[in-house]
């Protein structure tokens, strides 16, 4: 775990090892007990392609499975 403080202008410095691992851009998300920094990829579409490159099912197949599961849960 790392620690960071704000300077007198409200800026926070992210430790070097975290910047090297996650990059230089973040979204700040407010959660129930504080805030969370979410790394933002330089090219979000490339990041999505990489994330789902190994997906075995198409979006249509996943959508149909979700639809069937919702019908089953609702008791058809």
Automatic annotation (TrEMBL):
Residues 45-72 form a coiled coil. Residues 4-45 form the SpoVT-AbrB domain. Keywords: Coiled coil. GO terms for molecular function: DNA binding. This is SpoVT-AbrB domain-containing protein. It comes from Halorubrum californiense DSM 19288.
């Amino acid at each position: 775990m790392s620690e960071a403080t704000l300077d007198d202008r409200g800026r926070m410095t992210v430790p070097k090892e975290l910047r090297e691992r996650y990059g230089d851009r973040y979204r700040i998300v407010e959660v129930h007990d504080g805030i969370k920094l979410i790394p933002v990829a330089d090219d979000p579409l490339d990041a999505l392609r990489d994330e789902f490159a190994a997906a075995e099912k198409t979006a249509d197949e996943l959508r149909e499975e979700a639809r069937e599961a919702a019908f089953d849960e609702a008791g058809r």
